[in-house]
Amino acid sequence: MSKGKARRVSAADDRVTARRTLIVIGLVLATALALAFVYATRRVLVWVVVAAFFAVALKPLVDRLQRRFVRRRSLATLLVFLATFAVLAILGALIVVPLIDELGRFADRAPELLRDARAGRGPIGQTLERTGARRYLAEHSDQLRAFGTRLRQPAVGVLRGVLETVAGLVTVIVLAYLMVLEAPRITRGLLAAAGDGHGQRLRRVGREVSRSVTGYLTGNLLISVICGLLTYLVLALTGVPFAAVIALLVAVADLIPLVGATLGAVIAAGAGFLHSPVAGVVVLVFFVVYQQVENHLLQPVILARAVQLNPLTVLVSVLLAAELAGLLGALLAIPAAGIIQTLLREYGPNRLHPTSPTPPADQR
Fold first, then answer.
1. Where, per UniProt, does this protein localize (predicted)?
2. What is the sign of the dihedral through the CA atoms of 140, 142, 146 and 151?
3. Which of 60, 94, 143, 235 has the fewest Cβ atoms within 10 Å of its own Cβ atom?
4. pTM (predicted TM-score)
């Protein structure tokens, strides 16, 4: 090979190497920019994800109403959202009315409870006396007053947090409404882009995803309502004060998969033991029995029919999602895992590259 030809080959190799280096650098920069964008807009992305879950859950109701009674999509969507808000308002009223009554009773009894606690009388005072907490509070009263003063100062931050929560809630509702309203147009666009060959598969994936999300949200809410109502009955029968407030906290905690019922049991059993040892034992026995029923009857039925996930996948999904996104991740872990399972089932290697048929016995 001549020297001129060798130099040309070397120059070509250098250009290929430089091009590959630039491609790698560009991919790294693009990945870094994408991650920075996700981090900067993480709050909005969380709102979009939550709205998408609610939209997927409400879309079948809108489709059914539009198909049977209302022709206009906008009217059907509005009616479904109004009905959903009405149901939530009724449930909220059933919770808030006893809650306000319990808070009023607590406000009336607060001075008496405080005097008993300081004197070491009553359930709270006796508990503080046994644990040595009353002596600690008396010795560090000045520090506690200073701490309380500091807690009252950041009122602006608390107000800003409340406003951000309200803004997020309104944004999620508007996004979910628009997603449901524009769902047919979005679906037609996706089917047109996918072509006739993949349209049937996309429809099947959409139906399975919608069924998983709707079943999970509905079932999880139903389990929490059942847990809250039963907790209220047990606390009311055992005479534990502020039963409605405690039952509400237990119902909210029970929304968290796997560990929610345990957290609720700690709250309710603690309140029961503060009232009396008998009430604490009764509440503790109730939660032991209820957790067995929920874990082995209610949740398996929901997961088997709606999401179809095995217990190991559920546990790993909840732990990973809770570590990445906190409470919201734990709430959305199971339906997200169901969606991923559906996508893998439809587009995984077994579907993209089906195995060859088994040869007849005489050819083996």
1. Cell membrane
2. positive
3. 143
4. 0.62
